[in-house]
Structure formats: structure tokens, C-alpha cells
Amino acid sequence: xxxxxxxxxxxxxxxxxxxxxxxxxxxxxSRMLRGLVGPGDVVMDVGCGPGFFTLPLAEAVGDGxxxxxVDLQSAMLEKVGxxxxxxxxxxxxxxxxxxxxxxxxEDVEGVGPLDFVLAFWMIHEVxxxxxxxxxxxxxxxxxxxxxxxxxxxxxxxxxxxxxxxDAVAAGFVVVARPRVAISRAALLERPAA
Length: 193
Hints:
This protein is an alpha/beta fold. The chain folds into 2 domains: 37-58 and 66-103, Rossmann fold (3-Layer(aba) Sandwich), CATH 3.40.50; 113-193, Rossmann fold, CATH 3.40.50. It is built from 6 helices and 7 strands, in the order H-H-E-H-E-H-E-E-H-E-H-E-E. The protein has a 7-stranded mixed sheet. Helix 5 (129-139) crosses helix 6. The longest helix has 14 residues, at 74-87. The protein is globular.
């Protein structure tokens, strides 16, 4: 799938800045994810790009956990695969190319309910935001959480309110509004049954 077929998608050829050490000074993945992911968890990084958050997630889940790195572009997933191989984390990471209209998790073998999902700076790139949030809700176990983070420069307060409204309509409860540099963020939870 060409990213040109989906509006607002950052193409892989321009994604080098997404995994630079300078970016870590602004958004430290380990600090941001602390307390949200632990050993043995099954997590998903939606719109993983070149894996800036995927690798720290894989470190956090340990040998008993796994990370599903999901992206629309095969070139992004190739970048994640190369970085995971170099870091020795490839066995904890499953690469999954989604379509423009669905995460397609039914195509990922052996995926049970997820403990945690990260959607960092990507929801605004999805034409079917409500559909995406409903699909993530269904994939989470009761008590599972979604950290949704959007860039302030692209997502105004009205659009962010719409995102949160769509999340609540999908069944999520907003449990926290963490501070993330130059971003709007919410920690959402699928309520326990």
C-alpha cells in the first residue's frame, strides 16, 4: 500500500528523524512508558514507524512478553525489523502490516487479548478514527489500556476532543491525562467486565 493512498501518512523515506537520539531528548520512551508495560505483557505499537517506541516496549515486556509492531508501510516494518535484529530484540517483536481500513489483527497468529496499546502521533493520520478506536478496544483485555498521544501542531483542541469522544463511544474510559512534550495525551482503559 502506498502511503500516498492514505492522506497525511508520513512516508518511510522521510522517517529518519523519527528514531534519532535528539528525539529522545524531547520524548524519552522509557520514561513515558514507565508503569504502563511490564514483563510478560502483550502490547501493540500502532503506527510504529521505524520503531522508536517498539524497541523500548520490547525491552519492557521481557522474554515472556511480545510486541506487535503495526504499520501501513512495509518499508517502516523493514526498518523496525533491522533495528530489532541489531538490538537482539527480534524474538519479542512481531511485524504486522495493516491495511488502510483495518488493523487486521485476525491475520496475526496467536494474538490473544492485549494488555497495552500505544498510538503515538498517528490517530490523526487515520481516515476512520472511530473505527480504529473501536478495533483497539475489542483487541484489549478488560482492564487493558491505550495511550493515545497526538501532536499539538497537527491536532487542535476540537479535533482532540473529537478523538476522546470517539474513544468513549467505543467503550473506553479516560483514566489519566499524562504530560507528553508538545503533545495532547490520554490514558484510556477498557473497563473490567
